[in-house]
Amino acid sequence: MQKLINFLAALGNPFVGFILHLGGIFNLFLEIMLSLAYPFKKPTLIIKEIYFSGVRSLVIIAISGWFVGMVLGLQGYNTLQRFGSVSMIGSLVALSLLRELGPVLTAILFASRAGSGITAEIGLMKATEQLDAMSVMAVSPIKRIVVPKFIGGIISVPILACLFNTAGIFGGYFVSVVLLKLDNGTFWSQMSDSVSLHEDVINGIIKSFIFGIAVTLIAVYQGFIAKPTADGVSSATTRTVVGSALVVLALDFILTALMF
Length: 260
Known about the structure:
- This protein is mostly helical.
- The protein has helices at 2-34, 38-41, 43-53, 58-81, 89-127, 130-136, 141-179, 184-194, 197-225, 230-259.
- α5 packs parallel to α9 (197-225).
- The protein is elongated and about 70 Å long.
């Protein structure tokens, strides 16, 4: 009987832990919402976080978008050539980026670079008791630290996604028109005919905005619950990247089902 109880406990512990973490993230989100107006009184806090999260991610986002667009151009050309539809390669590249790859890959790259940095920063502040010191001085860590990072994240991700899409489209153009000698006018005309502002561009921006909320929220939460040790902070940054990637992919499926 005891073995059965231990087995059921071992089976239920991960589920219970997941529910507790979900509740913790929801509570943190409510605290952020209640404190959302504070950083706008000190806009330099938001600007600093946008620089850290967004500006310092520009290079990796642009280069990644360029290469993803080039790969889409190559694969699209090889596939469409079999069906005599090479002229549609511009549409293939644009729609793939705007609807799916742009928002998803941008969010995952953002989690890997900026999200892990946010978690490490908050985790180190906790380990060195800076958060406790702020509380003693009647300064709310949520208002001063978390909310600016949250706002910076949700502003940065949609902008970075637009940059990723732009770089990807030009990467596809480079492969298709410059290397494979597809007609320049055909590439752009087919793309403009296929892409819809609302269906593709706006929905992609909405996706990236929601991904930005999810990734930034996970990053700050993992920083707050990190154990105040080097190993604890390291584990928290790993959980941020892994958890963000899984949540982004799950949200992408749900949003795609609702939007398209």
